[in-house]
């Protein structure tokens, strides 16, 4: 990393400055920052999830370079329990999460990425305030929308070329048809959508030769370390409103992401039954996919702020419990960072 940055500064510094992508002075500052690395990269979606982390007395900003601004991102640099960290807020969505993670890994000497935030819950066995640590993440927002009249046995357009697949299953909209007054089904021209794997291009692979990834595993070492988080004491009340039981830290099999805010009971239940999903969010799979392509260790920790779509005694809970969930996940993240070798 340092050799490449030095080469760019010395050989191409003038042209970089002329085109304005990264100025020579910025590269020099990045080089100084990286000389203190490697860092743990921490990727956070929104300010209400970030603020409890920054307000922790454990986080100490770097005295000389407490931040570095680039391309609309504010990279906060510091230490936490003698671990060097760089923290970046992404903003909402898969696009912003992917862009921020790519910039983090391109500019800085990062040894691993920790992503955290709050999420909707698709698992009826879990409760608001619980902090989940999935072993696998998938992007469930990449679809092939099938032509009306075709069914599960009909090949998808471009499937023969390897562009699309029926491997991961589909959502049949007619299963959710309303009945008419005469109890007859209305033909649903929305038909089916088939879930697709992402195309990936690993940094040490052949350029433009794609691979595919649907379920992206988190780092094995990080996931093993997360076993030690089960005894972290979590909050259970917001003012005088308390949860039925004290929240827990739980490792789960799968989480899913997409550019969709899921506040729908039917789709929540579908994601749980089809994919065994627990947390549902809009960023984690994007961070996972970027780290996969860069071969960087990755883990995501998500606290449950609501039962997506309601349907329980705690329906429409996000507005009440988002602050509690944010603090709970930060408490777990702070403990996890101390465990990283």
UniProtKB/TrEMBL annotation:
<dbReference type="InterPro" id="IPR000845">
    <property type="entry name" value="Nucleoside_phosphorylase_d"/>
</dbReference>
<keyword id="KW-0732">Signal</keyword>
<protein>
    <recommendedName>
        <fullName>Nucleoside phosphorylase domain-containing protein</fullName>
    </recommendedName>
</protein>
<dbReference type="GO" id="GO:0009116">
    <property type="term" value="P:nucleoside metabolic process"/>
</dbReference>
<feature type="domain" description="Nucleoside phosphorylase">
    <location>
        <begin position="40"/>
        <end position="337"/>
    </location>
</feature>
<feature type="signal peptide">
    <location>
        <begin position="1"/>
        <end position="20"/>
    </location>
</feature>
<dbReference type="Pfam" id="PF01048">
    <property type="entry name" value="PNP_UDP_1"/>
</dbReference>
<dbReference type="GO" id="GO:0003824">
    <property type="term" value="F:catalytic activity"/>
</dbReference>
<dbReference type="InterPro" id="IPR035994">
    <property type="entry name" value="Nucleoside_phosphorylase_sf"/>
</dbReference>
